[in-house]
Design goal:
With 74 residues, the protein is mostly beta strands. It is 11% helix and 30% strand. The mean pLDDT is 92.
Length: 74
């Protein structure tokens, strides 16, 4: 069995991602779509409560998505 390797390219795709911390709360991310190409440097900026930390939590699979998908290196 071949071991799963760390992503080789670094391509990240968010497709129509919606995430809420609980079913009873409003989504902290709603219908977010963007692509990060390999080699790109990206900064996430915004006001308090804009969803910066939520994007990172969704990326690292610390919270379940309500809708959409996140693809890393295809």
């Amino acid at each position: 069995m071949k071991a799963v390797e760390w992503p080789q390219e670094g391509r990240i795709e968010f497709h129509d991602v919606t995430m809420a911390y609980r079913e009873t709360l409003e989504p902290s991310i709603k219908d977010l779509t963007f692509n990060v190409q390999p080699g790109m440097k990206v900064g996430i900026v915004g006001r308090t409560g804009a969803g910066k930390s939520s994007i990172i939590q969704a990326l690292f699979r610390l919270c379940d998505l309500t809708k959409g998908k996140i693809i890393i290196d295809g």
